[in-house]
Design a protein that fits this description.
heterodimer, A: about 180 residues, five-stranded antiparallel β-sheet, three-stranded antiparallel β-sheet, 1 helix, about 45% strand, elongated, B: about 160 residues, 12 strands, about 50% strand
Chain lengths: ~180, ~160
């Protein structure tokens, strides 16, 4: 009788107890090949001559994609150069353009790792081609994903400037490594 | 005295049988679950996958399936925590009362603390059922290459 009572109790405990099992989930992730920078806009600005020196500004909007997925040994850098503003047979001074700041943010839909920048990019004279300057870099393990980068440029327009439509080409290049 | 003994024995036999509701839970899905390879492209990505468990229940107290899991990890790198996004049932055999889930709000972010991802309310869920849970794994654009692994611990018990 005692033996049966124990068996019945064990059955009751089993009925109420939890059963657990583990399922291992493996999720392989491979890096893509993309390391690229593209221009998102063609900036322009207008100045009305007034007899005084003036400063105008524009913003070059870029997008960097680093899909390599490198935990170590990655990173990238952006270099920039520009041509002088020319128009109507005239040019603006060689040192007319100044990079005032560079900002970086994650593009919508991309939980990126913002670039850990060590490059100087505040109040930097925009170099004239073929000279280039590094204006943004991403240390290893940073700059991953799709990053929107804005170059904010100030342009000095001397009072002696002739009325015309001036243009300058800013070239931005990306290279692997910070 | 000899007449009384069989009566007592019958009473002892019948009482446990009446109280003991049978309940079993097992995981049907084979482990490991290997997901399709994701190639990083600069944008956030995600995948869903399912895990099926089987419940056999004859009691009236309802039941629940709980899950816990650490964030998928590859070395020191980790993805966001897994999420349970849906659950469904299918009668396998003898289902006098289908499961009526209650109090579930998807998505549920899994952690090391077990939480109920599917259940059958009081008086429901009698029979043998396959319960399929859908999980979401997220790959942020900043993920690094590697094979990320997580273990989902599933348990079933009586009571909703």
């Amino acid at each position: 009788m005692g033996r049966f009572a124990l068996a019945a109790l064990a059955a009751l405990l089993c009925a109420a107890g939890a059963r657990a099992a583990g399922v291992v989930v493996d999720a392989p992730v491979v890096g893509g090949s993309t390391l690229a920078v593209t221009a998102l806009n063609a900036p322009s600005f207008a100045v009305t001559l007034n007899g005084s020196d003036q400063v105008a500004a524009y913003q070059a909007q870029l997008q960097v994609v680093d899909a390599r997925g490198l935990a170590t040994g990655g990173g990238w850098n952006l270099t920039v150069s520009s041509t002088r503003f020319t128009g109507g047979g005239s040019t603006l001074p060689a040192d007319a353009s100044t990079l005032t700041s560079v900002t970086a943010s994650c593009h919508v839909g991309s939980t990126c790792a913002l670039p850990a920048n060590t490059a100087s990019n505040s109040n930097v004279a925009l170099p004239v081609t073929p000279t280039t300057a590094k204006v943004l870099n991403a240390g290893s393990g940073s700059g991953l994903g799709r990053v929107d980068v804005d170059l904010n440029v100030a342009v000095s327009v001397p009072a002696s400037t002739r009325a015309a439509s001036y243009s300058s080409t800013v070239t931005v290049a990306i290279s692997a490594g910070p | 005295m000899r007449r009384l003994l069989p009566v007592l024995l019958v009473a002892l036999v019948l009482t446990p049988a009446a109280l003991a509701a049978n309940f079993t839970f097992s995981v049907v899905t084979s482990s490991p679950v290997t997901l399709p390879t994701v190639t990083l492209d600069g944008d956030d990505q995600s995948q869903t996958f399912t895990v099926t468990g089987e419940i056999a229940n004859s009691g009236h107290a309802g039941w629940k399936i709980q899950a816990s899991a650490g964030a998928p990890a590859s070395g020191s790198a980790a993805l966001p925590a897994l999420q349970a996004t849906a659950g469904s049932w299918r009668c396998v055999s003898g289902c006098p009362s289908n499961p009526l889930p209650s109090g579930l709000t998807y998505p549920m972010t899994l952690s090391s603390t077990p939480q109920t991802i599917y259940n059958a309310d009081d008086g429901t869920g009698r029979g043998t059922f396959d319960i399929t849970s859908t999980f979401l794994i997220s790959y942020p654009a900043s993920a690094t290459a590697g094979t990320y692994t997580s273990t989902i611990v599933l348990s079933g018990s009586t009571g909703p």
